[in-house]
């Protein structure tokens, strides 16, 4: 996501204790008008560039979806196997207006999001707590490290079948799968974040009189926060994976179940339509996380403009 | 005669190197700093200047010998110590105000009183109006001012400074040196100021301690009998300044050469 600076560099000088005297005389006035002209020209160029990017994006989508639609219409490719954009759209429309085989679409989305959000919150909270505790207590980290590495090496989605047995069809059957996926990503980032805290900052805080509790809450956690927030971006996607996979192992509702059913009835358009809904939900969640991140670390220098907003 | 503010008696500090060897940073170092004295420590690169400060501050323990601050042997960070670090050590996620107020807050002062004290100190170091800025929005010189205010707000009896101005440009640096002297004159703190810049050491200090190339130990001590208050730029034009400089440099030169030869040798191996 794009982080655009809200504070142009020039505005920093406004309050400097020794401001430059206001421009005077012919030469300065001429320089001022040249500056104004340059900045207007640069703004126009930036606008042109933005338009160009949007136009190219639109063109890309048209070529991609158009060629898909065309090749299936002309029966060069069998729409039975690859689906068809128009089919996906009409399936979505049916889901929205008449509901899915499992009930209303919003309910399926709500079920999956409930599982994903629960799993994400619990997994992230556990990851942050364990990461910080193990990062601070060296002996504990040394003792536990082989076990953690072993647990991390397991393809954890298979635990979904175990959770389905343990928790049955309840929301925790799926949320638990999301928890184990989210936990490790957040844990490793939090742990690394704690280990990477600048030694100078710790020394400074100790000299200034910070006790261990203050050191953790005021120095270690804020410093590790960039690492933790970065991991939250990745791990919400994983929470959705956990919820969807959990639903495959046993569920009565949810987008994963919807996609699973569509697959079993050879309804390729249905599979794509379910994926589309998941993608929209994931993008919304990503937006929310970015907004939270920007609030939490407003102290960080904004990235320079011109970065690619991916 | 009052007891010294800082005493190092036969102090040795060894570190374990990552390769499993032992590195001796300072060996059998003995020096004293009187209450209210401004003491500069100079020496070539790698002579254990920073280690000396770490020992006085209690951030590191001596391997042998004794470190005494205000007549108490140092086992933890002593009361009344201030430390200005070489690099940036202000907290990037705190505003200028919260950075400066950190010390009093850690000592249990209420938020309101801490903010009030912090505002006074921010004004004293010339940053009034910048209370709500974050460190990344400030220049290097301004961040150093924040660091100074952050240390001085705790009213340290002992102020340790580790090449605090070495990263600044020359103009900012002389400005900061003069401001340090006027801030220090208003306190009764003892200062240990580590630098590799002999001119800076003489311009600021009452006494200059020369360390040998590592492992560091005291090679010589020189009184700087230049009048105060001083202007760090103008004082360099006094003939006495040149005399002192010459006397100290004749000792320091040999150590710098030793250190330089060693670095060349290390690079060649």
Task: Detail the topology: elements first, then pairings.
The complex is a heterodimer of chains A (310) and B (269).
Chain A: H1 25-73, H2 79-82, H3 85-98, H4 105-136, H5 138-153, H6 159-167, H7 171-195, H8 199-208, H9 212-248, H10 255-264, H11 268-296
Chain B: E1 6-16, E2 22-33, E3 38-42, H1 49-57, E4 64-69, E5 72-73, E6 81-84, H2 96-106, H3 111-124, H4 140-152, E7 158-162, H5 170-185, E8 190-195, H6 198-204, E9 207-211, E10 218-223, H7 239-268
Helix pairs in contact in B: 2-3, 2-4, 3-4, 6-7
Brief overview:
Chain A has 310 residues and is mostly helical.
Structure, explained:
Chain A contains eleven helices and no strands. Chain A is an all-alpha fold and 310 residues long. The longest helix of chain A has 49 residues, at 25-73. Chain B is α/β, with parallel strands linked by helices. Helix content of chain B is 37%, strand content 23%. In chain B, strand 1 and strand 2 (22-33) form a beta hairpin. Classes of the chains: A mainly alpha (310), B alpha/beta (269). The A-B interface holds A 7, 12, 15, 17, 198, 200-201, 203-211, 214, 218-219, 222-223, 225, 297-301 and B 57, 59, 77, 81-83, 85, 87-95, 102-103, 106-107, 126, 129-130, 134-137, 150-151, 154.
């Amino acid at each position: 996501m794009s982080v655009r600076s809200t504070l142009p560099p020039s505005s920093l000088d406004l309050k400097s204790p020794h401001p430059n005297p206001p421009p005077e005389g012919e030469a300065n006035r001429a320089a001022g008008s040249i500056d104004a002209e340059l900045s207007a020209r640069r703004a126009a160029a930036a606008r042109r560039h933005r338009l160009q990017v949007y136009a190219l994006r639109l063109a890309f989508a048209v070529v991609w979806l158009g060629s898909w639609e065309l090749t299936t219409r002309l029966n060069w490719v069998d729409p039975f196997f690859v689906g068809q954009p128009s089919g996906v759209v009409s399936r979505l429309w049916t889901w929205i207006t008449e509901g899915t085989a499992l009930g209303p679409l919003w309910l399926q989305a709500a079920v999956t999001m409930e599982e994903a959000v629960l799993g994400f919150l619990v997994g992230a909270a556990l990851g942050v707590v364990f990461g910080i505790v193990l990062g601070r207590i060296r002996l504990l980290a040394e003792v536990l490290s082989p076990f953690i590495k072993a647990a991390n090496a397991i393809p954890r989605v298979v635990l979904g079948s175990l959770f389905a047995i343990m928790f049955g069809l309840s929301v925790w059957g799926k949320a638990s799968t999301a928890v184990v996926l989210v936990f490790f990503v957040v844990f490793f980032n939090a742990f690394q974040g704690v280990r990477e805290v600048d030694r100078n900052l710790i020394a400074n805080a100790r000299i200034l009189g910070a006790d261990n509790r203050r050191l953790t809450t005021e120095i270690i956690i804020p410093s590790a926060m960039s690492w933790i927030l970065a991991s939250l971006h990745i791990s919400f996607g994983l929470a959705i994976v956990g919820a969807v996979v959990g639903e495959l192992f046993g569920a009565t509702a949810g987008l994963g179940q919807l996609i699973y059913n569509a697959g079993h009835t050879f309804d390729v358009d249905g599979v794509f339509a379910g994926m589309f809904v998941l993608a929209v939900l994931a993008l919304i969640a990503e937006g929310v996380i970015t907004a939270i991140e920007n609030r939490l670390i407003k102290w960080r220098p904004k990235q320079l403009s011109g970065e690619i907003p991916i | 005669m009052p007891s010294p503010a800082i005493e190092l008696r036969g102090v040795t500090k060894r570190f374990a190197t990552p390769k499993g060897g032992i590195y001796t940073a300072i060996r059998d170092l003995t020096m004293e700093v009187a209450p209210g004295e401004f003491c500069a420590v100079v020496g070539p690169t790698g002579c254990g200047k920073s280690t000396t400060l770490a020992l006085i501050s209690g951030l590191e323990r001596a391997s042998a010998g004794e470190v005494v601050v205000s007549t108490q042997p140092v086992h933890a960070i002593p009361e009344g110590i201030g430390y200005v670090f070489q690099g940036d050590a202000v907290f990037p996620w705190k505003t200028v105000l919260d950075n400066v107020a950190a010390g009093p807050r850690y000592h249990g002062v209420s938020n309101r009183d801490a903010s009030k004290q912090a505002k006074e100190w921010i004004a004293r170091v010339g940053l009034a109006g910048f209370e709500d800025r974050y460190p990344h929005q400030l220049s290097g010189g301004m961040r150093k001012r924040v660091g100074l205010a952050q240390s001085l707000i705790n009213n340290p009896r002992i102020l340790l400074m580790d090449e605090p101005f070495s990263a600044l440009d020359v103009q900012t640096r002389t400005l900061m040196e003069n401001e340090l002297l006027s801030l220090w004159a208003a306190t009764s703190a003892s200062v240990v100021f580590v630098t590799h810049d002999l001119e800076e050491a003489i311009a600021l200090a009452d006494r200059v301690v020369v360390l040998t190339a590592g492992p560091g130990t005291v090679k010589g001590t020189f009184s700087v009998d230049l009048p105060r208050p001083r202007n760090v730029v103008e004082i360099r034009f006094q003939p006495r300044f040149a005399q002192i400089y010459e006397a100290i440099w004749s000792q320091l030169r040999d150590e710098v050469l030793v250190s330089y030869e060693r670095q060349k040798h290390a690079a060649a191996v």
